């Protein structure tokens, strides 16, 4: 086991991070839309 990270792990981590960010942004936009009405 070396300190090298596999490409799959990198893509998985980036994908999960992007998904989480998109989810948070979507929820935030939904809250803003509710407040303006």
From TrEMBL:
Keyword Transmembrane belongs to the record: yes
Record keywords: Membrane, Transmembrane, Transmembrane helix
Top-level taxon in the UniProt lineage: Bacteria
Listed transmembrane segments: 12-29
Protein name: MFS transporter
């Amino acid at each position: 086991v070396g300190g090298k990270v596999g490409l799959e792990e990198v893509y998985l981590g980036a994908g999960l991070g992007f998904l989480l960010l998109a989810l948070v942004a979507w929820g935030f936009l939904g809250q803003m839309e509710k407040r303006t009405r």
